[in-house]
Amino acid sequence: MMRWLRPVIITLGLMLLWQLIVWLTDAPHFILPGPLRVLETLIAQFPLLMKHAGITLAEILLGLLLGTLLGLISALSLVTWGGLRRWLMPVLVVSQAIPVFALAPVLMLWLGYGMASKVAMATLIIYFPVTAACFDGLRQTPTGYLQLARTLGANRRAQLLQIRLPAALPAFGSGLRVAASVAPIGAVVGEWVGSSTGLGYLMLNANARMQVDLMFAALMVLAVMALALYFSVNLIARRLTPWLQESTSSTTRGDSQ
């Protein structure tokens, strides 16, 4: 029961704190609207918000899918071919020295103001966390497992599919959680730089017209989307590694005894 009540209590507490700040500062509604005013705007502008939220959600999901696939392929390639690792790994590290947000105008120039540039932005911001996490997981496969597989005559392909990949799933799940957290950032930043649809565009447009309550409503919708995406990915990661949940439960029971 507490597991489900805790998020509700935290949300209500944050709302109460928000309203308290509005009362104490006596801020005008065009600077800091109260939560009730934002909820009223959310209900009144719900069709408009859902229209733009659908575009942003599609950009986030496509970026998450492409970034995860490219990251997984890159990690497998780095582990499989040592020569490629010596050439590609420095490039990956150096690429992180360039702020991804600085590439947004370039992506707009190359890919236009449509969905492609926002998907590319989300893909770029997701790619490195997934690659790094999966690569570390593949490298940290217990040596005993690999030696036993070689003794039993398993080839490199069998070792990769049946030992390395399952052993790397916990690290891969951590990378997916990070990717789910940062994917909305890439999509929204791309919409801020240049777009005619999406929640990022709606927030900029509302800010320019001093419709701060609409801007906060769009921000709330984006936050709910981001939380739903994170918890969905977290659930998938937990389902992929059921043995971790069993070991955690066993440890908890042992500590309680």
UniProtKB/TrEMBL annotation:
In the bilayer, the protein is annotated as: Multi-pass membrane protein
Q: What InterPro entries does UniProt report for this protein, alphabetically?
A: MetI-like (IPR000515), MetI-like_sf (IPR035906)
Q: Which Pfam families match?
A: BPD_transp_1
Domain ABC transmembrane type-1 positions: 49-237
Bilayer-spanning residue ranges: 57-79, 91-113, 119-138, 167-194, 214-237
Cleaved signal peptide residues:
none
The molecule here is called Putative hydroxymethylpyrimidine transport system permease protein
The species this protein belongs to is: Marinobacterium halophilum
